[in-house]
Amino acid sequence: MFWPLTTLLGILAVTLTLGWVVDRTLQRVAVRRPDDRVWPLLRRCRVPLQVVICAALLLTARPLEKLLGLEGDGLHHAVLLVLIAGLGWLTVRVVAAGLVAFLSRYESRFESRAEDAARLQRVHTQISVLRRVVSALIAVVTGAVMLLTFDAMRTVGASLLASAGILGIVAGIAAQSALGNFFAGLQIAFGDTVRIGDTVVVDAQQGTVEEITLTYLVVRLWDYRRLIVPVSYFVSKPFENWTRRDPGLLAWVTLHLDHTTPVPELRAALHGHLGKNPHWDGQEWHLQVTDTTPSTVVVRAAMTARTPDAAALLRFEVREHLVAYLRDTHPTALPRIRTGEGE
To answer: Which of 123, 182, 204, 246 measures 20 to 30 Å from 166, CA to CA?
Structure first.
């Protein structure tokens, strides 16, 4: 009884010590490299690493069977299952950290070049989806290996393989929607139709893509609501992607004004305001009379901005400025309701 208890305590001490040493080492490296995101993620591997070490040592020394006086392979098999699950858990954490390290190095190569923003968004989306795919595959393989440790599963293995065709057809029909979303997620990730950070319009709802998974996509709307959309939507229905090639947009403001409006002066006022507005990218602008009605003229001011958010702010500020300019300098240019011939 003494030696099994001593062995068990020694295994626990070794497990805790190795976990602490690995964690302290990673913590020191993370302090030296605060900009590298991989080291905090590797520190998350401490618990699954300790599970693997402890299960491996228990599987080798088998102190629990001797301490509890159990005969047979029941407890030994349970420890083996814990070891396999721990290895799968540890592999998922390590793969996630490796993908983040790859993404960080890729970003460091192109972060100083504005024209590579679209490429970075594409790689970020692909890495995000790839991480979920790999995690799902590791979970499936881990579960399969755990099942194969049971004698009953090995015995019926031949019959399962023989009926795999029928089961595959049945599972394909039952999981048609899930499989469709799964392959749609892969198509989105590597087809570059939509990426994390893109501004999209889905069913007349404008928002920014916040997250892409294997089954759904999260769009953050302008009022901070989240729109959850199945990924199959983006491969089966049309949608607007405002930032797929170039994040820049053309913002425009439409005003209905009186026929006496001094358009050249209004155009000069717009140009002067754009020169001081930080949201204008300095590329294009114009102010034109696009239509007339019996009582008003339709004036449209258009100007470019670097991002959709900047375009929205620019549109609001230009509309406010032009209305204030006409109100203060040319009040008769604002539309009026005529009630008599002399008015």
So the answer is: 182
